[in-house]
Amino acid sequence: MNKIQIADKEFELLLDSDNISKRIRLIGIQLNVDYEKRCPIFIGVLNGSFLFMADLLREIEVPCEVGFIRISSYAGAESSGKINQAFGLPEDLHNRDVIIVEDIVDTGFTLDYILKEVHKQTPASVKVCSLLFKPAALKTEIAELEYVGFEIANDFVVGYGLDYDGLGRNLKAIYREKTVPADLP
Ligand code: IMP
Question: Could you tell me the pTM of the whole model?
Answer without folding.
Answer: 0.93
